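Database export, one record per block. Field names are fixed; values are copied verbatim from the stored entry.
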Amino acid sequence: MGWYARTLLPIIIDRGMRNSVMTEFRPKIVPLASKVVLEVGIGSGLNIPYYRDIERLYGLEPSAELLAKAALQTEAVRFPVDFLEAPAEAIPLADDSVDTVLSSWTLCTIPDVRAALKEMRRVLRPNGQFIFVEHGKSPEPNVQKWQERLTPVLTAIAGCHVNRKVDDLIAEAGFEIATLETRYLKGPKFISFHYIGQAGAGKP
């Protein structure tokens, strides 16, 4: 991992994740998690204060620098938090070991997102839930063209692929989508089309 990824990228990610849209959604999405929770891409821990009545939180994040920031968010919580410094493509947890998987603005950054989603389904218990709020591919062809043009630039700067059709990727991994809302949130169209919902683990 180079100097940019160790030094500047964690700062860019932390500041970017503090925008008003994300701040508005955290108290709506995070409290839906229950029991033993795995948050994929916990970043600097901005979701941690919004968890309610959970038994344990596993925070998965490949960046040691972001995990150091996330640790500061755990001082006031009453549930145990275990940080896992690992990529989402290789989650260091046993099969069927968590009740909730939560991913917020994370799937766009994972290099092999299909492998990561299969890992999330592997660790999720059969009666568990996958909660997601992600931005991705717009339904508008003109916006899609811009997303394709800009994805290489955004990937180089922040590791972000804005051209992923999130619902299809989740379904391909074997999840059964229970609720799904798709719409533009505030911001330029090429980065503001969102997929918000919940899914079950699906059939084995």
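Remark 1: The helical segments are 3-16, 20-29, 64-71, 113-123, 141-158, 166-172, 189-192.
Remark 2: The beta strands are 35-40, 54-60, 81-84, 98-104, 124-135, 176-184, 193-200.
End of record.
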